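# nightly structure sweep
# worker-07 picked up a monomer target from the shared queue
# config: single-sequence mode, recycle default, output format = structure tokens
# input follows
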Amino acid sequence: MALKDSLRLRFEKLADDVVPQLLDSWGGLQKRLDDLNCSLANRAVPEDRRSRVSELSLQEKAQQAGQDRPVVRAVPATGKGSRRK
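# output follows
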């Protein structure tokens, strides 16, 4: 067996052993970073603005989901003739 083939087989065996472990630890690291990001975001936004930020976030998510319908606002009736029968 040539040196090249021997090295290739060893590398493949090592990759088969190491890659699953790396993928598992990457998922844990990603969760930690997400938690840290949420914590920092909560500290950065003042308490009185959190509800507004949350509302804007929900609106953006709705738009991304294809729910970008125009906002319907009530218009007050003016006088007796404006009422339909």
